[in-house]
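User: For my dataset I need records formatted as: sequence, then structure tokens, nothing else. Please produce one.
Assistant:
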Amino acid sequence: MARPELQLEGQKDFIIQRYQSGVPLPIIQEVLQATYSIQTSVFTLRRRLKQWGIHPKQQRTIITDALRIAIEKYIFTIGLSDDELLR
């Protein structure tokens, strides 16, 4: 038997408004849990946004001078490996 569909229609406007305001999906997920006692996954939120006509976007990292300096510091000064740097 299939799992019943999670009812998010009552929070649809809340989810869309927060998402379009730049709130990350994991934060929206936490707020739904804390405020509405709704347990859902980021995957489900992403799928629902698509169903509602909102296409989730992947955020690209903007490479700034500050980011370059931080990476150089961790690689050349501290000597972190690639795996350590990605944690």
